Every structure is written in C-alpha cells, then in structure tokens.
Amino acid sequence: MSSKLAAARYGKDNVRVYKVHRDEKTGFQTVVEMTVCCLLEGDIDVSYTKADNSVVVATDSIKNTIFILAKQHPVTTPEVFASIIGNHFIQKYSHIHVAHVNIITHRWTRMTIDGKPHPHSFLRDGAETRNVQVDVTEGKGIEIASTIQGLHVLKSTGSQFWGFVRDEYTTLPEVWDRILSTEVDATWKWKKFSSLAEVQADSARFDNAWSAAREITLSTFAKENSPSVQATMYKMADQILAAVPQVETVEYSLPNKHYFEVDLKWHKGLKNTGKDAEVFAPQSGPNGLIKCTVARTSRPKL
Ligand SMILES: O=c1[nH]c(=O)c2[nH]c(=O)[nH]c2[nH]1
C-alpha cells in the first residue's frame, strides 16, 4: 500500500447540554445552554488502518463524559469548562494526547417582568453566541480562543466609502453617507496557559474580556464615522488588545451586508436616491467579506 494516515481526530459533535443553577436563598435560577464538540487525537491510527477498535473511546462515551463533567463542575465560564473537558480526556486515557473542545453558548437572557428581573424565565434575544475553541495538548498546555459570533448590527448613517481604486472594472460610486451593516465574528486568542489550574485561577478574566470585546465592538461601530469596514475593524481589534493584556491576537471577520438604493423616479417622479433615499433593498448576496488578524508589535529590545 502506498498510502498512510496523515492526520486523524474523532469525537462527538452537537452535544447539546443545558444546566440550571438554583440559588436556594434568593429563589433565582440561572441557566446555561450550550452545544459542545469534542474531538480527540492520539495513538488511534490502528482504528483507521487496522480496524482495531481497542484504542477507541466511543464517541457515545465522550458524550456521556461531557454530561457527567457538566454535573460535577461549573459550566461557566465556557473557557474553563472546555478546558476541564479537554484536560479530562488527556489525563484519563494515556494514548490520547490532544483534545479539541468547541463550545457554543446560546443566549438565554433573563426576562424583565413588571419592571423586575424574573427569577426563572429567559428569552433568546438574538442569534449572537459566545464560543470557545480550546485545544489541550499533553505536556504542552492549553490554547484558548474566545469568540463573539452572529452579533447583527446596523447603522443608518455615519459610514463612508471613497478613494478606492477606480478603473475600467469600477461601477461603485464613492459615498460619504451610507448604511453599514454586518454580523460580527470576533475572536481573541489567549497567551498559552500552562495547565488547567492556570486557566481556573481567574475565571472572571474570560467574562471581563468578553464584555470588553463586545463593548468595544459596539461603541466603535456606533461612534466612529467609518471610512471602511477595514479601518473600523482594525480600530476595534487594536482597542481589545489594549484592554486585555493576556490576549495575543484579535481576529475579525465581517460581512459587508449591502443595502441598495431603489430608484423610483419612473413612478410619478418619486425621489428616492441620494439624500432622498429612504426605501432600500437589503441584499442577501453577494456580500463583501472583510477579515483581519491584529497582533501586538514586539516590544523593543533594551
Ligand atoms: O468598507 C468597505 N470596504 C470595501 O473593501 C468595499 N468594497 C466595496 O465595494 N464596498 C466596500 N466597503
């Protein structure tokens, strides 16, 4: 045979987990709903190449383990819980050397009823999720990337786009006032952690970073008179790096969701373009897609 197994990982995806925390004193309940993916790597080649299942921890057992760990440990922050899951597999099975854990946390925001926070009712206020990708490698530490995904935003003015390349391929007019809309996908990668204990030592830093990243994203989007998606996303990433010292890189991936003017002058001379534009046609596609990764400049050597 002239082939070999070049890479392999396996596990359970779409493990849906819900956990409730009941505060007996206040009667308030808090809920977390997440979708977990856990993939393992290690000395598992023979399961592919020799049909030898003796090295296989069944994906069904991986799913069971996720539920058991969710019962035994806090599931917040997702960064810590994913590290607990990943660490479990490399500790428990000597032939498993890497665990890749992804957690998508869905929004269940407490309802306000009669002006007061309700003790046990929640609503899904948007498609936004808080995600983590945690890679635990035996003897090499824990890599964590935290993400805000699916945060839909729009501003009806305060955005421009001009000065771009004009040539025989160009039809887009320059604009000094346009609609800007996107679906935020922002990821910040943490400096590598040496152990689970180091990740657990300060769980709050993950919540603080998420709040800072979300606040910086929204306030920059709202306040800036944006010259382009590119310049705006760079500004956001730069501020997150300044706000969270333990973060090494920040990545944004932003679709530019276009809203086209509709010329209605053919109908009784209706004015609906330029400064008279009020009715627009939102486009499903094609859309711009703008990405960047922003890192720290290395410190000057003394
Ligand atoms: O912010 C923008 N960046 C682009 O690169 C681009 N290209 C385009 O057609 N519109 C826009 N808007």
Topology:
Elements: E1 10-22, E2 29-42, H1 45-49, H2 59-72, H3 78-92, E3 96-106, E4 109-113, E5 116-123, E6 129-137, E7 141-155, E8 180-190, H4 196-200, H5 204-223, H6 229-243, E9 247-256, E10 259-261, E11 280-282, E12 288-295
Antiparallel strand pairs: 1-2, 2-3, 3-6, 4-5, 6-7, 7-8, 8-9, 9-12, 10-11
The structure holds uric acid.
Enzyme class: oxidoreductase
GO molecular function: urate oxidase activity
Binding site for urate: 59-60, 161, 178, 229-230, 256
Structure report:
- It is built from 6 helices and 12 strands.
- It has 302 residues and is of the alpha+beta class.
- The protein has 2 domains: 132 residues, Roll (Urate Oxidase), CATH 3.10.270.10; 129 residues, Urate Oxidase.
- The strands form 3 sheets. An 8-stranded antiparallel β-sheet has the order 1-2-3-6-7-8-9-12. A two-stranded antiparallel sheet has the order 4-5. It has a two-stranded antiparallel sheet with strand order 10-11.
- α5 packs antiparallel against α6.
- The longest helix has 20 residues.
- The model has no long low-confidence stretch (mean pLDDT 97).
- The protein binds uric acid (URC).
- Uric acid (URC) binds next to α6 and β12.
